[in-house]
Specification:
The structure holds two protein chains of two kinds.
Chain A: H1 2-10, H2 22-26, E1 42-48, E2 54-60, H3 62-65, E3 70-75, H4 76-81, E4 113-114, E5 120-126, H5 129-138, E6 140-145, E7 169-176, H6 178-186, E8 190-201, E9 210-216, E10 221-226, H7 231-240, E11 250-253, H8 269-281, E12 285-288, H9 291-297, E13 301-312, E14 318-330, E15 358-366, H10 380-398, H11 402-409, E16 418-419, E17 425-426, H12 431-442, H13 447-456, E18 459-469, H14 477-482, E19 491-497, E20 503-507, H15 516-528, E21 535-539, H16 556-582, E22 590-593, E23 596-599, E24 605-607, H17 608-616, E25 630-635, E26 644-654, E27 660-670, H18 677-696, E28 728-732, H19 749-765, H20 777-784
Parallel strand pairs in A: 1-12, 10-11, 14-15, 20-21, 27-28
Antiparallel strand pairs in A: 1-5, 2-4, 2-6, 3-5, 7-15, 8-13, 9-10, 9-12, 13-14, 16-17, 18-26, 19-20, 19-25, 22-23, 23-24, 26-27
Chain B: E1 2-3, E2 6-7, H1 18-25, E3 44-47, E4 50-53, E5 66-68, H2 81-88, H3 98-110, H4 117-123, H5 135-145
Parallel strand pairs in B: 1-5
Antiparallel strand pairs in B: 1-2, 3-4, 3-5
Helix pairs in contact in B: 2-5, 3-5
The chains are: A alpha+beta, B alpha+beta.
Chain lengths: 787, 146
């Protein structure tokens, strides 16, 4: 008995359980979309626009159809003729004058116009990938080139890309009190201004996007295997909007998915065309992106140009923040592209501070580049970058310690719940606790000694902070839909106790590296007192669970995990009725703990496994109760969650070469309660590495013609093992006040805090000379020389 | 050639890549393709005992060679020490780069002595992981090297 208790404890909430999914991944038994093959399978290859903006005059497929092995060539015009709809944007943003945003029509494959390099206009289907490629080379498309709009800074006064969308503006959005903020600036003792660019990033999950579509003519059923973070949303869009197939005849399966970081949230042209084409040719079709296609056609991230001003009083208290941002949306509004630079950005500009007046304006701008959408952090890294760069700059201008300036402006524990001037209510936090711990871990007091030692090696050492906050656990459905979301943002869960007492857990969340099969089993084991080993977690298949909104915005545990807790509570509640009957008592006389239903004031008890068996073999059973022990829950969060913390970076800049080395990185995060610290640390490590990539290496660059100059891993610099140090990560805990687990979400924090911390360190090393991300050796070298 | 200890013969066009023989002809899908340009290392296997990117080897080059893939180094019941270390140290998340990373790591440990943090990091320069930030991968390899 004691042994069993220990075992349960070892695998319950808070335990560093080694991941069960690892066994298949480390032995090569993982099953990603490209690993699947169906009988009679064909291969698809897309013809993609070589131009950033052009009329598609004609397509001649005759030669391609004559290539041996080519089965069919399908075009955008055929999709239109078949009555398929456009790819929709799922979040309606309104301009400050109340007008709806202007959506450019987004056909899955271009029929009349192409608007970015890489946009697909035809799909060649063949019996081998080689034949499909040969066929694609033989498709003759005639284009008439148009002037592309590439440069974000000049896009609003360039030629209109779309008729009816003047100045290429999708919307001009605003949030906050403009007049009050203006007044704050009029009275300010000091104003710090900063112009910053948030560089375009290309997500680069290591598994390229892929799909395998199949159609069963006898049943009319479609099955789509695809690299998706949210298979139910994929099905919803493909049936309700694109109308490939009715929802009940379309099954979407996201098997093992090799990383997403946001880029696999969206409903893309490729899977839409493939599942439609599978129905037309009546054979399974597989498409796997080459890395070059991923660069061209995965939704990109970030890409903002911002002017910010921070007003302070004599003592350095923040009195106003004014932010004007131009956000690149790319050629089309991707699935959530409109919401990222607005509701996921402007609402976070209060940061951790009691700035009383904030006003933000965002112009969402079309350009002839790949669509821009959520990438790890999605709006919140951009907001953090604005706030934490300008606060650091203000400290330098005022001659104050950057930690002290932050501390004196922070929201204090007694201020919660705290309503910000930009529409959010933070439920809880203790920001100074994270700051204090981070200062200790980085050994702040001895920074100057380290700086002096570096100087002896002809290196300039800099230190930089970022005290970030994020809004996660997306999202209260009522609030989200009021703000324009086209779907609710609850999550579903089902806990099914099988007759033998093992448990099948179904979740609408989707794991593509996060380890839900382990952590969700820990949660259910803890709640039901059933051994961890007896619990299986199933996800990623619209045919196996009712519905789900998927995984993004660090929402899985806070929303999906909470749904499982509610379902488990329902199990306990029903179990009490069954147990009471078994023990000839009333349900309110029964307590539940550690897997045992026990009768109060007695030594009688029955295990949950015994109750489960009784529920499936209801010979002697409560009259008014249904058999079975399966419960479902839809959990709709009451608020966002607000993870927050302090990240501190130390860099050394080589005076002779301009090479910047990240030498120390400390992250202290408050994620609320933690289910599995091993996984949480791993999430922070990965996020920090991506943020370091943004700060020091990564940049998606288009030339003036709209050709992607960083279209392979040879041109787009990804962080490698020797670019990074070991990370020093730790946590503080203020439990979330409004979900049953007290959790906040940890998936994005690393990428949110680290760019600002690193760039504050770089500019510190450069004697407060500002440079834009990424801090490449050339930029740094020129900055050192005063260029 | 010999793959995972078993003799195998495939008849493929001479421009076929080793990775395609493994994945398509032999169904060994544990070896992954991540980039097509020999940058990411997801396709790393051992050829005659050394780590090689199988997307850069043509079929005729592998003729008569001993090829070992992730499927050939251990089983779930009896993991290779490097596989066990990756699990113990949470050195993987999405798992896509993992087989290549493990094959590279085994080469690194088997062919070097006194591996420290820096040497391990430099030894992984040809393998990209987007999930872990490398921290736990380095820790796993260090634990085996020690």
């Amino acid at each position: 008995m004691a042994q069993a208790e220990t075992t349960e404890l070892e695998n319950g909430i808070g335990a560093a359980v080694r991941r069960r999914e690892d066994l298949r991944f480390i032995t090569g038994a993982g099953r990603y979309t490209d690993d699947l093959t169906q009988p009679g399978q064909l291969y698809g290859f897309f013809c993609r626009s070589p131009y950033a903006r052009a009329e598609l005059v004609s397509i001649d497929c005759a030669e391609a159809l004559a290539v041996p092995g080519v089965v069919d060539v399908l075009t955008g015009a055929q999709m239109v003729a078949d009555g398929l709809g456009d790819l929709p944007c799922g979040w309606l943003v309104k301009s400050k004058d109340g007008a709806d945003m202007l959506s450019a029509p987004h056909p899955p494959m271009a029929a009349e116009r192409v608007n970015y390099v890489g946009e697909p206009y035809a799909l060649v289907v063949a019996d081998s990938i080689l034949a499909a490629k040969r066929g694609a080379e033989s498709v003759v498309a005639e284009f008439s080139e148009l002037n592309p709009v590439i440069d974000l800074a000049t896009a609003t006064h360039s030629e209109d890309i779309y008729p009816g969308i003047t100045h290429n503006l999708a919307y001009e959005w605003a949030l906050g009190d403009e007049d009050a903020t203006r007044m704050a600036f009029a009275k300010a003792a000091h104003v710090t201004t900063l112009d910053i660019v948030n560089n375009r990033l290309i997500p680069n999950a290591m598994e390229p996007r892929a799909c395998l579509g199949q159609f069963d003519a006898s049943s009319g059923e479609y099955t789509l295997y695809t690299t998706s973070q949210n298979p139910h949303l994929e099905r919803l869009v493909l049936s309700a909007f694109v109308q490939v197939a009715p929802e009940h005849k379309l099954r979407v399966i996201a098997p093992d998915v090799g990383g997403g970081f946001g880029s696999k949230i969206f409903i893309y042209a490729e899977e839409t065309a493939v599942i439609w084409a599978a129905g037309k040719v009546k054979r399974p079709i597989k498409w796997v992106a080459e890395r070059g296609e991923s660069f061209l056609s995965d939704a990109h991230g970030r890409d903002h140009v911002t002017h910010a001003e921070l007003a302070m009083d004599e003592s350095g208290r923040f009195t106003g923040l004014k932010v004007v941002t131009t956000a690149n949306l790319g050629a089309y509004l991707s699935t959530f592209g409109s919401s990222v630079p607005t509701y996921l950005y402007g609402t976070l500009l209060a940061g951790q501070y009691k700035t009383p007046n904030i006003y933000v304006e965002v112009q969402g701008v079309y350009t002839n580049t790949a669509p821009v959408d959520a990438y790890r952090g999605a709006g919140r890294p951009e907001a953090t970058y604005v706030v934490e760069r300008i606060v650091e700059q203000a400290a330098r201008e005022l001659g104050k310690d950057p930690a002290d300036l932050r501390r004196m402006n922070m929201i204090q524990p007694e201020d919660f719940p705290y309503e910000t001037p930009v529409a959010l209510v933070y439920d809880t936090g203790n920001y100074e606790a994270s700051l204090d711990k981070a200062l200790e871990l980085i050994d702040y007091n001895n920074f100057e000694a380290r700086q002096a030692a570096a100087a002896e090696q002809r290196k300039r050492r800099g230190i930089g902070f970022a005290c970030y906050i994020e809004a996660c656990g997306l999202a209260p459905s009522k609030l989200a839909t009021e703000l324009g979301a086209g779907v609710g943002l609850y999550e579903s869960g089902e806990v099914r106790i099988n007759p033998t007492g093992s448990v099948s857990v179904f979740t609408g969340s989707h794991s593509h590296g996060q380890g839900h099969e382990t952590t969700f089993a820990q949660v259910v084991s803890d709640k039901l007192g059933i051994p961890y080993e007896d619990i299986e977690v199933i996800h990623g298949d619209t045919g196996r669970m009712e519905f789900g909104l998927g995984t993004y915005g660090s929402r899985s545990l806070a929303v999906g995990g909470s749904a499982l807790v509610v379902a488990a509570d329902k199990i306990i509640s029903k179990g009490k009725k069954i147990a009471a009957h078994m023990m000839q008592a009333q349900p309110d006389q029964v307590d539940f703990q550690d897997g045992q239903f026990s009768l109060q004031d007695s030594n009688q008890s029955v295990s949950i496994q015994e109750v489960a068996f009784a529920s499936y073999v209801p010979a002697d059973y409560p009259e008014d109760l249904e058999p079975g022990l399966t419960e479902k829950a839809f959990y709709d969060p009451k608020n966002f969650t607000y993870p927050a913390g302090t990240h501190v970076a130390e860099v050394e800049v080589d005076i002779d070469t301009g090479v910047t080395t990240l030498v120390k990185f400390v992250a202290v995060d408050d994620f609320g309660h933690i289910i599995n610290p091993l996984i949480v640390d791993g999430q922070v490590h990965g996020g920090v590495a991506q943020g370091a990539g943004q700060a020091m290496m990564e940049h998606g660059i288009y030339d003036e013609y709209g050709q992607l100059q960083t279209g392979s891993l040879m041109d787009y610099c990804m962080p490698r093992a020797d670019d990074l140090p070991d990370f020093d990560v730790d946590t503080t805990v203020t439990p979330c006040t409004h979900n049953p687990l007290g959790v906040k979400g940890c998936g994005e924090a690393g990428a949110i805090g680290s760019p600002a911390a690193i760039m504050n360190a770089v500019t510190h090393a450069l004697g407060n000379k500002d440079i834009s991300m990424p801090a490449t050796p050339e930029k740094v070298w020129r900055a050192i020389r005063g260029e | 050639m010999t793959v995972n200890g078993a003799a195998c013969e495939v008849d493929v066009p001479s421009n076929t890549l080793l990775v395609d023989i493994l994945r398509v002809e032999l169904g060994l899908t544990g070896t992954h393709v991540g980039c097509d340009t020999s940058q990411c290392g997801a396709c790393t296997v051992h050829v005659d005992g050394r780590a090689v990117k199988s997307c850069t080897v043509l079929a005729p080059q592998a003729e008569g060679m001993q090829v070992t893939t992730i499927e050939g180094i251990g089983t779930t019941e009896q993991l290779h020490p490097m596989q066990a270390a990756f699990r113990e140290c949470h050195a993987l998340q999405c798992g896509f780069c993992t087989p290549g990373m493990i094959m590279q790591a085994i080469d690194l440990v088997e062919n070097n002595t006194n591996l420290d943090n820096r040497a391990i990091r430099e030894g992984l320069e040809g393998n990209i992981c987007r999930c872990t930030g490398y921290h736990n991968i380095v820790r796993a390899i260090q634990s085996v090297a020690d």
